[in-house]
Inverse folding.
C-alpha cells in the first residue's frame, strides 16, 4: 500500500514538472508569458501527458504563438484546442500511432475531418503504413476548399489503393495548382485521386 | 474496452493474418543445417541416428518450448509498432531546402517547429539570389509546421508546401513532412 502511494506521488511529481521543466530551460516562457498564462498552460500540458498525449507538439504551439506575437489568452486557447484534437486522434488511432501521425491527424481534425474517418483509414492501411503525409495532405486540401467528404474519400481511395507518399504528395501539388487555376475544389480532388491511384495491373506486377 | 485498445488488437490480428515472408537466405540456411545434421548422423552410424531420433521424442517439452520460442521471435520481428519506428528514425536530420520568391524583400527567415520558432539567432536566414531567397538546413524526420518571416514582420506560408490547418494566431503557416532517407 505504502509502495503504491509512493509510486503515485512520484508519478504526480514527474507529470507535474512537464511544463515547468521546459520553462526552466527556455527563458522565453517566463519572460513573455504572465503567471496566469503559465499556470493555465502547465495544467493543460500536465493533463495531456496524463492522458498519454505527446506534449512536444503542445510546446511547439506555445513557441509558435510567442513567435507570432499572440497574447497569452490566445496561446492558451490554441494549445487547449490542439490538446483536444490530439486527444481525439489518439483515441481513434490507438497506441500504435506515432507522435507525427498524431500531429498530422490533429491538423486534419482541426480542418474539420471527423476523427472517426482517420481511424478508419488507419485500420484500412494497417500497422506498417505511416499516415503522417496522407493526414497532412488531407488537412491541406480541406483548407483549400475541398469539401471534407470529397477530401476524405480521395485520400481514403489513395491509401486503399496502396499509393506511396510520393504519389500523395504529387496529388496535393496537382490539386492545389488546379484550384489556383480556377477548378472547383471537389472536382479537382476527385479527378486527381483517380489519376494518382496505382492501377491494379501495376500493383499486381509489383507483387510478382 | 476503450476504442484505441480495440483498434490496436484488430490491427495486430490483421497483421498476423498476413502470410509469413521469410528472407531469401532462409532456405539456404535450413538446407545447410539439414546436410550438416545428416552428415553427423551418417558419421555416428545407424545406431547413433536412432538414438538421436529417440532423444527428441523423449523430450516433447523441450521441443514445444523451442517451437514457442521460434514463433515468438518470428512474431516480434514481424510486428512493427510506432515506438520502434520513432526510435529508429528520431535524430536523423535530412537536408531540406526552403525557397521563397520575394523580389522586393529585404530579409527572409525560416522559422518553425524545427527551431522552436526561434527568431533572431536561431532563425534560418535565407540568402537572396536575385529575388529568389533560399536556405538549406538539416531538419529532423517528422512533421513540422513553419513559415517564412519577410522583412522581420510579415508571415508568409510556403506557396509550394501543404498548408498547416488553422491559423490559430492569425498568420499562415505550412506543413513539412521529412521522412527518413531509407523509407
Amino acid at each position: 500500500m505504502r509502495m503504491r502511494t509512493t509510486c503515485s506521488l512520484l508519478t504526480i511529481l514527474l507529470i507535474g514538472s512537464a511544463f515547468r521543466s521546459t520553462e526552466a530551460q527556455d527563458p522565453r516562457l517566463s519572460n513573455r508569458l504572465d503567471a496566469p498564462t503559465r499556470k493555465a498552460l502547465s495544467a493543460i500540458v500536465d493533463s495531456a501527458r496524463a492522458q498519454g498525449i505527446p506534449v512536444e507538439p503542445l510546446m511547439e504551439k506555445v513557441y509558435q504563438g510567442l513567435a507570432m506575437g499572440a497574447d497569452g489568452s490566445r496561446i492558451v486557447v490554441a494549445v487547449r484546442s490542439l490538446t483536444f484534437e490530439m486527444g481525439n486522434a489518439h483515441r481513434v488511432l490507438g497506441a500504435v500511432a506515432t507522435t507525427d501521425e498524431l500531429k498530422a491527424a490533429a491538423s486534419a481534425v482541426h480542418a474539420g475531418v471527423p476523427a472517426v474517418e482517420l481511424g478508419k483509414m488507419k485500420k484500412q492501411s494497417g500497422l506498417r503504413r505511416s499516415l503522417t503525409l496522407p493526414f497532412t495532405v488531407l488537412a491541406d486540401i480541406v483548407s483549400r476548399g475541398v469539401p471534407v467528404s470529397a477530401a476524405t474519400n480521395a485520400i481514403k481511395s489513395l491509401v486503399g489503393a496502396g499509393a506511396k507518399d510520393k504519389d500523395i504528395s504529387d496529388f496535393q501539388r496537382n490539386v492545389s495548382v488546379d484550384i489556383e487555376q480556377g477548378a472547383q475544389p471537389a472536382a479537382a480532388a476527385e479527378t486527381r485521386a483517380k489519376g494518382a491511384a496505382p492501377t491494379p495491373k501495376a500493383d499486381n506486377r509489383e507483387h510478382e | 474496452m476503450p476504442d484505441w485498445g480495440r483498434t490496436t488488437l484488430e490491427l495486430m490480428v490483421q497483421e498476423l493474418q498476413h502470410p509469413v515472408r521469410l528472407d531469401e537466405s532462409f532456405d539456404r540456411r535450413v538446407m545447410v543445417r539439414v546436410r550438416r545434421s545428416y552428415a553427423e548422423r551418417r558419421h555416428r552410424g545407424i545406431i547413433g541416428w536412432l538414438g538421436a531420433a529417440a532423444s527428441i521424442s523423449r523430450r516433447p517439452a523441450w521441443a514445444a518450448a523451442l517451437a514457442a520460442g521460434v514463433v515468438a521471435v518470428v512474431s516480434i520481428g514481424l510486428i512493427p509498432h510506432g515506438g520502434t519506428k520513432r526510435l529508429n528514425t528520431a535524430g536523423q536530420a535530412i537536408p531540406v531546402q526552403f525557397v521563397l520568391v520575394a523580389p522586393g524583400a529585404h530579409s527572409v527567415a525560416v522559422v518553425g517547429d524545427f527551431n522552436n520558432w526561434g527568431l533572431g539567432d536561431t532563425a534560418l536566414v535565407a540568402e537572396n539570389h536575385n529575388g529568389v531567397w533560399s536556405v538549406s538546413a538539416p531538419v529532423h524526420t517528422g512533421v513540422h509546421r513553419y513559415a517564412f518571416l519577410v522583412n522581420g514582420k510579415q508571415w508568409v506560408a510556403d506557396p509550394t508546401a501543404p498548408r498547416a490547418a488553422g491559423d490559430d494566431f492569425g498568420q499562415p503557416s505550412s506543413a513539412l513532412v521529412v521522412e527518413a532517407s531509407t523509407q
